[in-house]
């Protein structure tokens, strides 16, 4: 298990406790289970920083059904924050074995997933047609998947190391086989402070175009600015009932990554009461317009109809929460679900990518954007430096 950004974060292994849940009440059940479990543990914490003491790594399903959600409390946790390092153990962990060396997974071959690129283009075209003709949606976020098989066993640490090295400003995560490097922070709680990084609106490298030129084009794009405004206002509307103060930037900035650029807004607030647990706030804000659409209920319903695939935990909240209520949840983007076991002779992994679709979206450009968003996981899988 992992949650690391710029060298700081948490890495855990072993399983001291675990909850698997699903359905409409998955966040409520997860919150109740975690609070009950944490209250029964005798804690000795000499450090007292967010992430010390008991921690549950968490990965929630995107939708109510199908999909599964999981909380895992590791037996051993190693953390680092602002130059302070610590180790947390739960109970009497099993005797440590020397770690196996991380090996290259060998040759990689790709095949269509549940929704091919061609099928994805058709889904985008259908969504655009509906928005233009019916007019009941402002935005919908559609995704597709890609299957990859490796000639040798696949070690999740191989992916994590490559992702962290190439995308240090992203949150590199691993929870129950879901591995990725997300640029989008859904919610972070530290004491009574909460913040979020909203991303929506994307441009990717193109031949003959410099980075500054691309950034200026993104900021000037009416389509991308409109998409971003939907996402930021969605987050603020859902988060405001928990806050006495909430600050939303008037203008987005540009987040520059190796494979794409995004419009970004950092939202921050002061919480109003003890009922604002991180999991309950996450339940309130997920899915934002950045991963669902606007209006969200109609968009999420149409996502299932148009995609026809199980997203599972892709685009769901992923991260960690500690016993004092601190924690960080990102949106599970730029990620893949490892489907093979470590002892298998070959590796098997399912990659995901998606885009925000509005009425003037071009299906061909959306396919190209999704391909650009698959690049981080493909390069990590292939070991490209």
UniProtKB/TrEMBL annotation:
Domain Chorismate-utilising enzyme C-terminal residues, every copy: 118-373
Catalytic reaction(s) noted: chorismate = isochorismate
Keyword flag Isomerase: yes
InterPro entries linked to this entry: ADC_synthase, Chorismate_C, IsoChor_synthase
Top enzyme class: isomerase
Listed EC numbers: 5.4.4.2
Pfam families membership: Chorismate_bind
Keywords (A to Z) from UniProt: Isomerase
Protein family (similarity comment): Belongs to the isochorismate synthase family.
Listed name of the protein: isochorismate synthase
């Amino acid at each position: 298990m992992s949650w690391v950004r710029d060298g700081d974060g948490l890495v855990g292994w072993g399983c001291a406790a675990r909850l698997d849940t699903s359905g409409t009440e998955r966040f409520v059940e997860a919150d109740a289970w975690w609070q009950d479990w944490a209250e029964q543990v005798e804690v000795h914490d000499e450090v007292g920083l967010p992430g010390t003491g008991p921690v549950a790594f968490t990965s929630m399903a995107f939708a109510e059904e199908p999909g599964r959600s999981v909380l895992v409390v590791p037996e051993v946790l190693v953390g680092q924050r602002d130059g302070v390092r610590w180790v947390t153990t739960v109970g009497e962990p099993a005797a440590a074995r020397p770690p196996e060396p991380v090996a290259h997974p060998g040759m990689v071959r790709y095949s269509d997933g549940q929704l091919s690129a061609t099928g994805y283009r058709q889904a985008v075209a259908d969504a655009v047609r509906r928005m233009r003709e019916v007019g009941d949606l402002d935005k919908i976020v559609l995704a597709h998947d890609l299957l990859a098989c490796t000639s040798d066993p696949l070690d999740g640490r191989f992916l994590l190391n490559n992702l962290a090295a190439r995308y240090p400003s992203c949150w590199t995560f691993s929870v129950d086989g879901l591995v990725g490097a997300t640029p989008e922070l859904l919610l972070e709680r530290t004491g009574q402070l909460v913040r979020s990084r909203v991303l929506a609106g994307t441009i990717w490298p193109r031949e003959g175009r410099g980075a500054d030129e691309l950034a200026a084009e993104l900021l000037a794009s009416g389509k991308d600015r409109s998409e971003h405004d939907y996402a930021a206002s969605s987050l603020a509307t859902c988060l405001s009932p928990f806050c006495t103060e909430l600050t939303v930037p008037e203008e987005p900035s540009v987040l520059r990554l190796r494979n794409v650029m995004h419009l970004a807004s950092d939202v921050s607030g002061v919480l109003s009461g003890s009922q604002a647990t991180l999991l309950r706030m996450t339940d309130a804000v997920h899915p934002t317009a950045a991963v669902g659409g606007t209006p969200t209920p109609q968009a999420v319903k149409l996502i299932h109809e148009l995609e026809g695939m199980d997203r599972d935990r892709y685009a769901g909240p992923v991260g960690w929460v500690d016993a004092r209520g601190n924690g960080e949840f990102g949106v599970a983007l730029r990620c893949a679900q490892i489907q093979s076991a470590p002892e298998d002779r070959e590796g098997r992994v399912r990659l995901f990518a998606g885009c925000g679709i509005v009425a003037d979206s071009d299906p061909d450009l959306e396919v190209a954007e999704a391909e650009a968003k698959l690049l981080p996981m493909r390069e990590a899988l292939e070991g490209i430096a």
